[in-house]
Amino acid sequence: MAAANSSNGDSVKSPKRPPPPSPLRFSKFYQSNMRILITGGAGFIGSHLVDRLMENEKNEVIVADNYFTGSKDNLKKWMGHPRFELIRHDVTEPLIIEVDQIYHLACPASPVFYKYNPVKTIKTNVIGTLNMLGLAKRVGARILLTSTSEVYGDPLEHPQTETYWGNVNPIGVRSCYDEGKRVAETLMFDYHRQHGIEIRVARIFNTYGPRMNIDDGRVVSNFLAQALRGEPLTVQSPGTQTRSFCYVSDLVDGLIRLMGGSDTGPINIGNPGEFTMLELAETVKELINPDLEIKIVDNTPDDPRQRKPDITKSKELLHWEPKVKLRDGLTLMEEDFRLRLGVVKNN
Ligand SMILES: NC(=O)c1ccc[n+]([C@@H]2O[C@H](COP(=O)([O-])OP(=O)(O)OC[C@H]3O[C@@H](n4cnc5c(N)ncnc54)[C@H](O)[C@@H]3O)[C@@H](O)[C@H]2O)c1
Ligand SMILES: O=c1ccn([C@@H]2O[C@H](COP(=O)(O)OP(=O)(O)O[C@H]3OC[C@@H](O)[C@H](O)[C@H]3O)[C@@H](O)[C@H]2O)c(=O)[nH]1
Predict the structure, then answer these.
(1) CA 132 to the chain's CA centroid
(2) What is the CB < 6 Å shell around ligand 1?
(3) Which ligand places an atom closest to the C-alpha of 280?
(4) DSSP for 248-293, written as a single string
(5) Protein residue with its CA nearest to atom 24 in ligand 2
(6) Which of 86, 209, 210, 244 has a CA 20 to 30 Å removed from the CA of 20?
(7) Catalytic residue among 114, 177, 191, 208
(8) Is 177 a catalytic residue?
(9) Which residue's CA lies nearest to atom 21 of ligand 1?
(10) What is the pLDDT of residue 33?
(11) What is the C-alpha separation between 303 and 287, in angstroms, rounded?
């Protein structure tokens, strides 16, 4: 074995060389330029992001998820793929791993689920984001946070621009999520200013599409599942509250552009098409079954009365705008829900 000189001039044995890597390392799958971590990658948006990132043969994708609202089923097509890895991990615990980019999505997103265990939700947002920022700092990775339009609370400015500071109840039942995301944004910018971490912050507006949990509790999945089961569509009162719905493929495209671009954000990613919940129910009825009943039910506290993104910034900086119209997106989602619910379409 070759000898080397130590700093004091003594001759020392050089350490044993590591064994050569497996020949597979030189197959096209292993020549990754980018190793990407997706926290929450077993969830609805995360699994679509995995699909898109895996299309690039230069990417290696690692998902860390605790399966609270996500499922291995969403990732089954990638199981065993040499460029893909799935780790059962809770982001409230530190993660030691070497990666180039982090898409930090881990957090329940449906109000039903985030309110189920609010303390866990805020821990996920605060401690989880701190842990992922610590990881980004240790390995020099760029990190993207999926923040939310909920940081604008019940907005008094309409449509919402990124400069609007919001109208959020700090002690309400939604606060674990919206205040949690606001702290997560603060942490991102403090790590950026104090430690020079490369950050990207996306403020995502209501997103829908295939693979949403059937009983997720969010309005689009609720209405579709109810319509296919022949049940009344439950519009929470008054029904005149508005949302703007973005199809998941558009959203994922926006996230990848944001990660690849040079702007830190925060940047709104959403579809400016705005609908009342009654209009959404009527659209679902028309598409699936015009005989369905619409039932007005009680709402939950602090439900935002209006929401619509101003996407001037994403158009200018990311050259991004959504392409899929609500009716087309609902039809694509209907196919997936029919398959999963086992409800055949009668022509
Ligand atoms: N879908 C939307 O309309 C929307 C809008 C705004 C923001 N977002 C954000 O996008 C992200 C993804 O949302 P989604 O709609 O895919 O929701 P989702 O519930 O389908 O996915 C969230 C994923 O995070 C995982 N997770 C939750 N807590 C975790 C923890 N402590 N450790 C590890 N994994 C954990 C879940 O198991 C799940 O796989 C969330 O951060 C959400 O706040 C979503
Ligand atoms: O069955 C239902 C469910 C919900 N709704 C209404 O539909 C609207 C949207 O509710 P959702 O539960 O889908 O989602 P919200 O807009 O309240 O929150 C969402 O906002 C953006 C993201 O961060 C999250 O995915 C989620 O918190 C609300 O006004 C709600 O009252 C119904 O009318 N009927």
Answers:
(1) 15
(2) 39-40, 42-46, 65-70, 90-92, 105-109, 124, 128, 146, 148, 204, 206-207
(3) 2
(4) HHHHHHHHHHHHHSS----EEES---EEEHHHHHHHHHHHH-TT--
(5) 109
(6) 86
(7) 177
(8) yes
(9) 43
(10) 81
(11) 27
pLDDT above 80 for 7 = no
3-state secondary structure of 88: strand
Give the DSSP H or E segment for 128: helix 118-139
What is the atom index within ligand 1 of the atom nearest the CA of 123? 31
At 56-102, the pLDDT tens digits run 988 999 999 999 999 999 999 999 999 999 999 999 999 999 999 99
Query: What's 346's DSSP letter?
Result: P
Report the candidate in 238, 241, 301 with the shortest Cα–Cα distance to residue 276.
241
Say what the pTM is: 0.92
CB 191 within 8 A of CB 136: yes
Among all bound ligands, the one having the nearest atom to the CA of 71 is 1
Bridge partners, residue 108, by sequence: none
Question: In whole angstroms, how far apart are CA 170 and each of 181, 304, 331?
Answer: 12, 14, 38
Asked whether 103 and 37 are in contact (CB, 8 A), the reply is yes
| pLDDT band with cut points at 50, 70 and 90 for residue 9 | very low
In eight-state DSSP terms, residue 15 is: P
Cα 104 from chain centre: 8
CB 253 within 8 A of CB 260: no
In 3-state terms the chain splits into helix, strand, coil percentages (rounded to 5) of 40, 20, 40
Give residue 218 CA to ligand 1 midpoint distance, Å.
Answer: 13
Contact present, 158 and 214 (Cβ < 8 Å)? no
Mutate-to-test residue for ligand 1 from 107, 125, 205, highest number of ligand atoms within 8 A of CB: 107
Phi, psi of 139, deg, nearest 5: -105, 0
> Looking at ligand 2, which atom is closest to the CA of residue 220?
13
- Tell me the two tokens of residue 5: 């000189």
Comparing CA positions, the residue from 213, 229, 243, 203 lying closest to residue 326 is: 243
Using the mean position of ligand 2's atoms as its centre, give its distance from the Cα of residue 303 in Å: 8
ipTM of the complex: 0.98
CA of 3 to the centre of ligand 1 (A): 54
Query: How many other CB atoms are there within 10 angstroms of residue 76's CB atom?
Result: 10
Question: How many Å apart are CA 125 and CA 114, to the nearest integer?
Answer: 11
